[in-house]
């Protein structure tokens, strides 16, 4: 009997230990955090007519560009690839990819084919160092076979990879940029993909349109334009493809900015004679005045993380400086300490402000306007552009890893992007004058 | 009053104390010698095999299988020792000796001299340091950390206990994303600027299925409050690590994350 009891106790102990067991990860810093080395061979073309060839070329180019632009991958050069490129899981020899020269940690591969006017794409992501269960991702796409859809599928697959490997942050391959372009003669609002492709004109006002800002759900673009009643906040519906009405306020109204929940719109208005910051609901009602100062207050931007703070530009101490305040107008705090600081943009995680800053402004101080990023809590800042003409109007990408801005370093004002550490600066537009970019929320 | 008063008149009285002192020291020495010579009267050695009771077996700290930083490498370029890479000897193509076209009838073809058997020069054994070297042009981790998170093998930076226990071996990419994200969100300038180095601080937390960190707590403090706080804040800044892999059955994963601080 005693022995039985002892066995019972032992069994209970062991089983309770097993039940309470839990998967543990033990890791730490200083283990060499670097970019993931990713190999993306061309997707295998199963059908071999000329139409498929062109689509395959578009697809492969878009996919590799998206992954390169993501900022978290170290792309393996094509010259390092093995001679046989896999198109399906059974064709993969992981050892060829995991060992030098490719030395890839991850391998994205797949195949594409056209049947009955539809483009079929199968894509996989493999962990090359994990021979037991290498598959991280497997996806299948089917869209009508157009060049545009080949790009869309590539964007989607790239975003899936970035989402998995980038720590749960959505990729930006399907995001849009809105900007002002003068290439048609007058300043109008334009739209393009995040990589500069598919540029198209939205508004045809024939006057001046400035500072576009797209709503978080991507349905409307708010901007300021010249009307018979002066400068007003105007709305363009992306769903309807035309202008829609919005409340008109007195005076001149500029630089609308959506809160991240889509409930509110902040802007600057001179309806009482002096330029102040106001907020209205997304429908145009419930107007609230947030600042009250004799100096001009302009360029509001919401903290997208909390929607309870606004950063803006005020001239209350002389030259324009960046300030932050609560969204009800209280607790104003000056952020920049010197120079000429304008165009704030709040990072999606609420931690940073990007803005244009001439640190040494005035006679005898030939300062350049450059893009800076400041950690709001510690007031530490970093300069992202250097000695490259006049840089202004930064706007954060929704993943918080990229910044789009305008620069006239090539002579004309054009739209540029860079990673949020200032690296990988790329020009997106070339035709005409393009300015005031705004990155969509998703 | 006499002029020649001997102020050292009391000198002769020292003899007795000196004698006493010598006797006392002799006695002490004898006592020490006696104590040493008699066995069994000595103190027991702690942890020794002869000691009574349960002697604890101590493990050296250096033998705890903590992961080595993968970037640590001996610089194979800037020292005088030979490289770590063994170059295989170049293959000499075999000559077909019969193909020499000497066809004159009265010329004797001299037999080719026998190749003298020569011992190949002894090749130097090159120490293998496969795990600890970075090949030319590659700054990244060579043999990991993706696949080398093998369960039980704590070498790659991770070890697992209990549960299904295969999270690391199956989803090394997820573990790596966690490490990257925490490292990105750790702001070193939050640490007291007067601190140069500190002990390792251990933070533990759980990752829910949707990828959110929960139950963030300091498992072992570094002794520097600002460092502990900065490590905790790094975790609090993170909204999500991304949902746990759908193939993983568990409800959550526990993570032990350490922070090494050095200014």
In words, what does this structure look like?
Chain A is mostly beta strands and 442 residues long. Chain A has two domains: 36-165, TolB, N-terminal domain (Rossmann fold, 3-Layer(aba) Sandwich), CATH 3.40.50.10070; 176-439, 6 Propeller (Neuraminidase), CATH 2.120.10.30. Chain A is built from four helices and 31 strands. In chain A, the strands form seven sheets. In chain A, strands 2, 3, 4, 5, 6 and 7 form a six-stranded mixed β-sheet that branches. A four-stranded antiparallel β-sheet of chain A has the order 10-9-8-31, with no helix packed on it. In chain A, α2 (50-69) packs parallel to α4. The longest helix of chain A has 20 residues, at 50-69. With 263 residues, chain B is α+β, with helices and mostly antiparallel strands. Chain B has a domain at 167-263: Fusion Protein Consisting Of Minor Coat Protein, Glycine Rich Linker, Tola, And A His Tag, Chain: A, Domain 2 (2-Layer Sandwich). Chain B has helices at 15-37, 167-170, 172-185, 225-236; strands spanning 201-208, 213-220, 252-259. In chain B, strands 2-1-3 form a three-stranded antiparallel β-sheet, with helices on one face. Chain B is flat, with a radius of gyration of 37 Å. At the A-B interface, β1 and α4 of A face α2, α3 and β3 of B. β1 (24-28) of chain A pairs parallel with β3 (252-259) of chain B.
Core attributes:
heterodimer, A: 442 residues, mainly beta, Rossmann fold, Neuraminidase, 2 domains, six-stranded mixed beta sheet, four-stranded antiparallel beta sheet, 31 strands, 14% helix, 39% strand, B: 263 residues, alpha+beta, Fusion Protein Consisting Of Minor Coat Protein, Glycine Rich Linker, Tola, And A His Tag, Chain: A, Domain 2, three-stranded antiparallel beta sheet, 4 helices, 3 strands, 9% strand
Please work out how many helical segments of chain B DSSP would assign. 4
Mean pLDDT of chain B: 65
Secondary structure: number of strands of chain B: 3
Give the tally of structural domains of chain A: 2
**Cα-atom radius of gyration of chain A:** 26 Å
Q: From the coordinates shown, what is the CATH architecture of the largest domain in chain A?
A: 6 Propeller
Enumerate how many helices of chain A there are, as a single number. Answer: 4
Structural class of chain B: alpha+beta
At the fourth CATH level, what is the homologous superfamily of the largest domain in chain A?
A: TolB, C-terminal domain
CATH hierarchy, class of the largest domain in chain A: Mainly Beta
**What is the H-and-E element order of chain B?**
HHHEEHE
Oligomer, anyone? heterodimer
Strand fraction of chain A equals 35-45%
Low-confidence stretches of chain B: 40-73, 75-82, 134-163
Ranges of chain A where pLDDT stays below 50 over 5 or more residues in a row are 17-21
Q: Can you identify the CATH class of the domain at 167-263 in chain B?
A: Alpha Beta
């Amino acid at each position: 009997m005693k022995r039985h009891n002892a066995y019972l106790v032992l069994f209970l102990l062991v089983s309770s230990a097993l039940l309470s067991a839990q998967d543990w990860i033990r890791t730490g810093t200083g283990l060499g955090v670097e970019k993931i080395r990713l190999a993306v061979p061309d997707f295998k073309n199963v059908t071999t007519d000329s139409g498929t060839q062109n689509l395959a070329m578009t697809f492969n180019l878009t996919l590799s560009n998206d992954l390169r632009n993501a900022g978290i991958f170290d792309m393996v050069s094509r010259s390092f690839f093995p001679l046989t490129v896999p198109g399906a899981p059974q064709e993969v020899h992981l050892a060829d990819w995991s060992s030098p020269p490719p030395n890839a940690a991850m391998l994205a591969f797949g195949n594409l084919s056209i049947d009955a006017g539809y483009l079929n794409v199968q894509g996989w992501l493999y962990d090359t160092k994990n021979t037991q269960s290498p598959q991280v991702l497997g996806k299948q796409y089917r869209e009508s076979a157009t060049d545009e859809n080949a790009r869309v599928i590539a964007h989607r697959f790239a975003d899936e990879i970035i989402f998995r490997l980038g720590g749960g942050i959505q990729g930006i391959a399907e995001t849009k940029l809105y900007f002002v372009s003068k290439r048609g003669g007058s300043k109008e609002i334009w739209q393009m993909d995040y990589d500069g492709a598919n540029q198209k004109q939205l508004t045809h006002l024939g006057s001046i349109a400035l500072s576009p800002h797209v709503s978080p759900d991507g349905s409307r673009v708010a901007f300021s334009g010249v009307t018979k009643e002066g400068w007003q906040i105007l709305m363009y519906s992306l769903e309807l493809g035309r202008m829609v009405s919005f409340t008109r306020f007195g005076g001149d109204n500029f630089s609308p900015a959506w809160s991240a929940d889509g409930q509110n719109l902040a802007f600057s208005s001179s309806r009482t004679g002096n330029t102040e910051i106001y907020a209205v609901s997304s429908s145009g009602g419930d107007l609230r005045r947030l600042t009250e100062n004799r100096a001009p207050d302009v360029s509001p931007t919401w903290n997208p993380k909390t929607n309870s703070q606004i950063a803006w530009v005020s001239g209350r101490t002389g030259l324009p400086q960046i300030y932050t305040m609560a969204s009800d107008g209280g607790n104003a705090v000056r952020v920049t300490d010197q120079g000429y600081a304008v165009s704030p943009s709040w990072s999606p995680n609420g931690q940073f402000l990007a803005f244009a800053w001439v640190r040494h402004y005035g006679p005898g101080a030939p300062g350049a306007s450059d893009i800076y990023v400041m950690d709001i809590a510690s007031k530490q800042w970093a300069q992202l552009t250097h000695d490259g003409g006049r840089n202004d109007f930064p706007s954060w990408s929704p993943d918080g890893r990229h910044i789009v801005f305008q620069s006239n370093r090539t002579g004309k004002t054009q739209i540029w992007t860079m990673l949020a550490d200032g690296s990988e600066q790329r020009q997106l537009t070339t035709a005409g004058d393009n300015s005031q970019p705004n990155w969509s929320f998703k | 009053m006499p002029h020649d008063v001997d102020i050292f008149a009391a000198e002769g009285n020292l003899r007795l104390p000196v004698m006493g002192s010598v006797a006392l020291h002799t006695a002490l020495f004898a006592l020490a010698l006696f104590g040493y010579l008699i066995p069994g009267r000595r103190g027991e050695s702690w942890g020794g095999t002869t000691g009574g009771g349960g002697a604890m077996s101590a493990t050296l700290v250096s033998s705890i299988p903590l992961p080595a930083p993968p970037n640590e490498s001996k610089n194979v370029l800037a020292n005088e020792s030979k490289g770590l890479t063994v170059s295989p000897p170049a293959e000499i193509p075999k000559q077909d000796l019969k193909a020499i076209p000497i066809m004159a009838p009265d010329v004797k073809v001299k037999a080719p001299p026998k190749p003298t058997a020569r011992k190949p020069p002894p090749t130097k054994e090159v120490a293998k340091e496969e795990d600890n070297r970075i090949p030319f042009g590659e700054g990244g981790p060579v043999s990991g950390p993706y696949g080398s998170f093998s369960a039980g093998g704590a070498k790659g930076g991770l070890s697992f206990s209990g549960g299904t226990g295969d999270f690391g071996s199956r989803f090394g990419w997820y573990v790596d994303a966690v490490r990257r994200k925490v490292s990105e969100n750790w702001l070193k300038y939050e640490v007291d600027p007067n601190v140069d180095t500190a002990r390792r601080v251990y933070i533990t937390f759980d990752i829910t299925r949707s990828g959110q960190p929960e139950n963030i707590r300091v498992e072992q403090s570094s002794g520097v409050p600002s460092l502990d706080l900065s490590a905790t804040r790094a975790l609090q800044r993170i909204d999500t690590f991304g949902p746990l892999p759908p193939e993983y059955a568990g409800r959550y994963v526990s993570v032990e994350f350490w922070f090494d601080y050095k200014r």
